[in-house]
Amino acid sequence: MIDAKAQQSAPSAVAVSAAYRSAAVTVAPTTAIVMALDRVLLNLKRTIAATEAKRFEEAFNLTSHSTQILRGLAHHIDVAKGGAMAERLQKTYHANIMAMLLAMGKPDAIRRYQKLAEGLTELRDAWAQIAKIPPLAARPSASANAGTETPASSAA
């Protein structure tokens, strides 16, 4: 059963989109994307911990928040301007959304979440290179701390 209070506190897609637009005004758009992906990675780390501890409602809420962030990123892609590359990026975001949702409750959910975190770290680091932000791999103990709070993620 899903707690109604927890549902109300989860940000809507509109709220996530507004947060992205607000961040994009404050920082460069590529930095805002890195910040958003940092938050998704942090949520995935917390989702793994919650799943391991059998706190499934918490895992659900974190997954829901992550999918809303990715949905917001996909929504802001200008396919008309970006062409095939933009379409591919949009499909990548949507594929990750579906993979997160399909992982919930599966016996191998933790492995699936870890795999998603690996792929999203690569995507995040590609955006970070464009934004001139250090990649997660370049940070000390990056593999142990993948998805932890970073200066860019604390505002996400």
UniProtKB/TrEMBL annotation:
Protein name: Flagellar protein FliS
Pfam families membership: FliS
GO biological process, one term: bacterial-type flagellum assembly
Higher taxonomy: Bacteria, Pseudomonadati, Pseudomonadota, Alphaproteobacteria, Hyphomicrobiales
Main location: cytoplasm
Compartment(s): Cytoplasm, Cytosol
Species of origin: Blastochloris sulfoviridis
UniProt feature coiled coil, ranges: none
Keyword flag Metal-binding: no
Annotated GO CC locations: cytosol
PANTHER family according to UniProt: FLAGELLAR SECRETION CHAPERONE FLIS
Keywords: Bacterial flagellum biogenesis, Cell projection, Chaperone, Cilium, Cytoplasm, Flagellum
Protein family per UniProt: Belongs to the FliS family.
Tagged with keyword Chaperone: yes
Top-level taxon in the UniProt lineage: Bacteria
